[in-house]
Design brief:
Blueprint lengths: L1 E7 L2 E2 L8 E7 L6 E7 L8 H8 L4 E3 L5 H9 L3 E3 L7 H10 L12
Parallel strand pairs: 1-5, 5-6
Antiparallel strand pairs: 1-2, 1-3, 3-4
């Protein structure tokens, strides 16, 4: 499993489309442990580009503060699950909380 977290200044970027980088957090075969993280700069943000690119990077899940409904639908077409309403934090901490079932999500901060 590979969890994608949009970043701004090393922390979760609350608006998905404005992120500077993506952290790709690799989950071990046990589904519970984090085995590594790499940060990648995404291609220019245009409709449909990021879903395809993250799919090519092997992402299975995205933890996001906010994301529009259309973008969520595009990710679903690539088999990538999206969790919105995630609070700001370090990508490894957020991924670990998600895996432990302790990640507290709030409403989607994106209104489009």
């Amino acid at each position: 499993m590979r969890i994608a977290v949009p970043l701004a200044e090393g922390r979760l970027c609350m608006h998905f489309g404005h992120c500077e980088q993506f952290a790709l957090v690799e989950v071990g075969s046990d589904g519970k442990t984090l085995v590594g993280t790499r940060c990648l700069t995404p291609p220019a943000h245009e409709p449909g580009v990021l879903p395809r690119w993250l799919h090519e990077q092997g992402a299975n899940l995205i933890l996001a503060g906010g994301m529009g409904q259309r973008a969520q639908e595009l990710f679903a077409r690539y088999g990538i699950q999206v969790v919105v309403g995630v609070p700001a934090g370090a990508p490894e901490d957020l991924a670990a909380k998600y895996l432990a079932g302790t990640l507290e999500v709030q409403g989607n901060v994106c209104d489009h």
